[in-house]
Amino acid sequence: MNRIRNWMIDTAGIMFDDSKNDLRSLPKTVRLNVLVCLSFVWSTVFSIWVFTTMNQLVWGWTGLVVGHIGLIMAVYYTFKQFHGAEKRYYYHFNSYHSVGRSRGGMIGYDGTRVKWDPTDPGGEHE
Predict the structure, then answer these.
(1) Residue 92 has what pLDDT?
(2) Residue 1's Cα: distance from chain center in Å?
(3) What CA–CA distances, in Å, run from 35 to 3, 45, 68, 75, 102?
């Protein structure tokens, strides 16, 4: 499963990561425009190959183009959200991060306040 995940990350990195993409010298908007134009080209090729009547060709091509543009935008947006999350948010799983723990205690069901041991690092699995 990790192999597939790593392959998907590498593939998305080639398309959307600025340091790995062969089109990195172009502005981001131009790169996105190139991807959309390629989706038009391949949608047209597939439509001509598969659809037989003009009505099928028009509706099939339109559906493919809209689907490709939607897929490109969704993948690009999702990749950017996950790729930049670590830089934007200070939230790490390698340390104890509970807000209640940082307050030094908790309030019990009966209203009594329980203070934490200051030497206890916290967490359930110690």
Answers:
(1) 56
(2) 18
(3) 26, 15, 9, 12, 47
**Token pair recorded at residue 67:** 């689907």
Nearest partner of 79 among 20, 12, 34, 25, judged by Cα:
12
Non-local (6+) Cβ contacts of 77 within 8 A are none
Of all helices (H) and strands (E), which one includes residue 89? Answer: none
Provide long-range contacts, Cβ within 8 A and 24+ apart, for 15-24: 16/75, 16/76, 16/79, 16/80, 16/83, 17/83
Token match 């690092």: residue?
A: 121
- pLDDT (tens digit per residue) in 73-99: 898 888 878 776 666 666 555 555 544
Q: How far apart are CA 76 and CA 65, in angstroms?
A: 16
Domain residue ranges of the chain, discontinuous segments joined by +:
2-115
On whether the pTM is more than 0.85, the answer is no
